[in-house]
Structures are given as structure tokens and as C-alpha cells.
From TrEMBL:
Family the entry assigns: Belongs to the peptidase C19 family.
Name of this chain's protein: ubiquitinyl hydrolase 1
Gene Ontology MF terms: cysteine-type deubiquitinase activity
Keywords noted in UniProt: Hydrolase, Protease, Thiol protease, Ubl conjugation pathway
Enzyme Commission numbers on file: 3.4.19.12
Ranges in coiled-coil conformation: none
Keyword Protease part of the UniProt annotation: yes
Residue span, USP domain: 1-286
Family annotation (Pfam families): UCH
Record keyword Hydrolase present: yes
Organism: Cyanidiococcus yangmingshanensis
GO biological process terms, semicolon-separated: protein deubiquitination; proteolysis
């Protein structure tokens, strides 16, 4: 939505000279007496950690004071911002939870109308649900079904049509048409949105043996032979691995320079491996002679 209430007056108070300077350097200035956290974001980048916070007394919330505060603050940080940075996140305390604002620069038909160059989006963070808070868990076959479903691209991800040379709404579908000898499944453990970045700690159930998939009517069976684990958060974490060794028919756990043998039965191994830390799964296709006859009703993940 467009800026409202006290935000509208502050945004419209930004002079054209400061607006042009901020646009050229990828910054979106905003002032609010109740701002407690502001981060600069860029594509596929962590927040640079430079606070753009303005604290003004209520009697100073006029055009001259806001202009001066923004100008002085921008002079000190514009040189440190990455040129790819494009939005600001502003969080304020409000009844019922935190209120976040995201500001983006837009091209204005009339450059003199500064208020038209800014879009203000808000959301109540108390109502935002992160993937890490989901309950119950998922099954790997459910994930494969969702991965192969038809998806409509939204306005933020339009498809460029080579015929009409324009970006258009389109439908996208991902499919596997051939059964690879090695199937690597990368579980989505990190969530990136306009509002937050987070680690997803949802348990995904997956089999150690006999992952059965239907490729165009042909049953293909895979067995797990390695798992990459990630422990920790988005900002910091640790990677370990579990691997199966054919020569001794045993699972081993690798943690940096330390290697330990896992229990010698699938049930105990599954308790250690099938966990919210599982990040990348490595499956090996069985030979045709080792596959039992008949389709066991497992889902197909291909399309005609």
C-alpha cells in the first residue's frame, strides 16, 4: 500500500536532490521516531548491517528537520552500501506485535513528485508464519509431488516471451523424464522472502531403502547412500555427513576429522539420519534385476 499517516508526510518531505542521490546509490531513506531496526537488503545478500535510523522529537517532525536528518545520515552511509542493494526494512513496535515496512524505489512519471517514487508495504509480523514453525513434518513423496506441480508465475517473476518481446504471465512445471543413476535431492532448508530470512527446521521423512518412483510407467527403486546435514541457523551453522559403505554394509557419521560407526540396524540408523538437520540426500538407483516385479503405487513425478 502507499504511505499513510505520519509516514506519508515524512516521505513527501524528502527533497529531490537527496532522493536522486539515494536512488543512484541504491538507498531508500525513511524516517520514523519509533524505528528500532532498519536493514539494507540486496539480491542474494545478507543485510549489510548499516543502520539507517533517525530519531527525531515530535516537534521536529517537519520538512526542514526531516530533510536535514536524512541528508546528514545518507552522507555517512551511501559510500558503504552495495550497489545491488534495493530495499529497506523498517521495523517498529506496535500494539499486537512488530510492524514492518518495506520501501522500494519506483520510476515516477514526474520526478518532482517525490512521494510517487516510493512504495511502502507493511505487514504485521505477529501474523507472519515462517516455515520453521510448521508442525507435523512432511514425507519425501509429498515434497516430490509439490515440486512437480504446475505453478503460475506471479507478477514478480514474469516470463519473458521471445515472440512478443514482453514479460508475460506463464505456467511452469518441473519434471524428471529419465531415471538418473544417482538422484540428489536438495531439501529447502533456507527461506528468503521480502520480510525475513530464516532456517526451515521441518522434519522430512525419507526412506533409507526402496525409494520407489514411477518414471513414465516404469518402476525405479533407489537406495540412500549419503546424507549431508546442516546444524545451526541461517547466519551460522555446521555441516556433517552420514555415508553408507558397501564393503562392510555399515553407515558412518563424519564430523570434520571425527568418524564414527552408526548402529548396525536400519531402525537405529534412521533415528540418527532422518532428522530436521537432513539437507541433501544422495540416492543410488538399483539395477533392474534387483527391482521387485509390479508397481507398488508410488507416485509418478513425470508428465507427458
Amino acid at each position: 500500500m502507499r504511505s499513510q499517516a505520519n509516514g506519508k508526510g515524512l516521505l513527501s518531505a524528502i527533497p529531490e536532490a537527496v532522493r536522486a542521490t539515494a536512488c543512484a546509490n541504491g538507498a531508500s531513506p525513511f524516517a520514523d521516531a519509533q524505528v528500532v531496526e532498519v536493514h539494507q537488503f540486496g539480491p542474494e545478500r545478507e543485510p549489510v548491517g548499516i543502520p539507517l535510523v533517525f530519531t527525531l522529537q515530535k516537534e521536529e517532525l517537519d520538512e526542514s528537520h526531516v530533510r536535514a536528518a536524512i541528508h546528514e545520515r545518507l552522507k555517512g552511509v551511501l559510500g558503504d552500501l552495495h550497489p545491488e542493494a534495493y530495499t529497506l526494512r523498517v521495523r517498529t513496535h506496535a500494539p499486537g506485535g512488530s510492524l514492518s515496512y518495506e520501501l522500494e524505489w519506483q520510476q515516477a512519471a514526474d520526478a518532482a513528485e517525490v512521494s510517487r517514487c516510493l512504495a511502502l508495504h507493511s505487514t504485521n509480523e505477529s501474523n507472519v508464519t515462517s516455515g520453521r514453525h510448521l508442525t507435523g513434518g512432511l514425507d519425501l513423496h509429498q515434497c516430490l509431488h509439490l515440486w512437480s506441480e504446475t505453478e503460475q508465475l506471479d507478477d514478480d517473476n514474469l516470463w519473458y516471451c521471445p515472440r512478443c518481446k514482453r514479460h508475460q504471465r506463464a505456467w511452469k512445471q518441473l519434471s524428471l523424464y529419465r531415471a538418473p543413476p544417482i538422484l540428489i535431492i536438495h531439501l529447502k532448508r533456507f527461506q528468503y522472502t521480502s520480510w525475513f530470512r530464516d532456517k526451515i527446521d521441518v522434519l522430512v521423512e525419507f526412506p533409507l531403502r526402496s525409494l520407489e518412483l514411477d518414471f513414465a510407467g516404469t518402476l525405479v527403486v533407489y537406495d540412500l547412500y549419503a546424507v549431508s546435514h546442516h546444524m545451526g541457523s541461517l547466519g551460522s551453522g555446521h555441516y556433517t555427513a552420514s555415508c553408507y559403505r558397501n564393503s562392510c554394509s555399515r553407515w558412518f557419521y563424519f564430523d570434520d576429522a571425527y568418524v564414527s560407526a552408526l548402529p548396525d540396524n536400519d531402525e537405529e540408523v534412521a533415528k540418527r539420519i532422518v532428522s530436521p538437520s537432513a539437507y541433501i540426500l544422495f540416492y543410488q538407483r538399483r539395477l533392474s534385476a534387483d527391482i521387485p516385479n509390479g508397481n507398488h503405487g508410488m507416485p509418478a513425478i513425470t508428465s507427458s
